[in-house]
Design brief:
single chain, Hypothetical Protein Ychn, Chain: A, globular
């Protein structure tokens, strides 16, 4: 079997859990060695790469309403998946729009100049586009 090349696009914070579940199920089905997976986040979804949502939350450290279910567990899942070879990218334009400094991103996140351009490049390279 040739490697399946898949790009997951996340631009809404409340779609992260679905995206990560989709990735986990995909890897279980085809096995990691048969997949080349990248996740591109842009728009408000880049905030999930930081603890910003928890810091901006309301009482008892709960995430702000706009952050959906974003919490440390999502970052833990992302880190585990990155250890399996899944790449995570953040759009530099979105980071600037969300006032997030690149230096606060986890080491497993790569910053790309523009998320939309990264998506177009990956599609040109034959990656299937999935938007959970």
């Amino acid at each position: 079997m040739n490697k399946l090349k898949v790009l997951f696009h996340v631009n809404e914070l409340d779609r992260w859990q679905t995206a990560l579940s989709n990735i986990i199920n995909f890897v279980k089905d085809v096995e990691q060695e048969n997949a080349d997976i990248e996740v591109v986040a842009n728009g408000p979804a880049v905030s999930a790469y930081t603890s910003r949502c928890l810091l901006e939350g309301g009482n008892n450290g709960q995430p702000a309403a706009s952050c959906g279910k974003v919490d440390g567990e999502l970052l833990n899942q992302m880190k585990k998946l990155s250890g399996m070879g899944i790449r995570f990218a953040a759009c530099r334009n979105a980071l600037r729009a969300q006032s997030i400094d690149e230096s606060v991103l986890p080491s497993f996140v790569t910053v790309v100049p523009a998320g939309i351009t990264e998506i177009a490049k990956k599609q040109a390279e034959g990656y299937a586009y999935i938007k959970p």
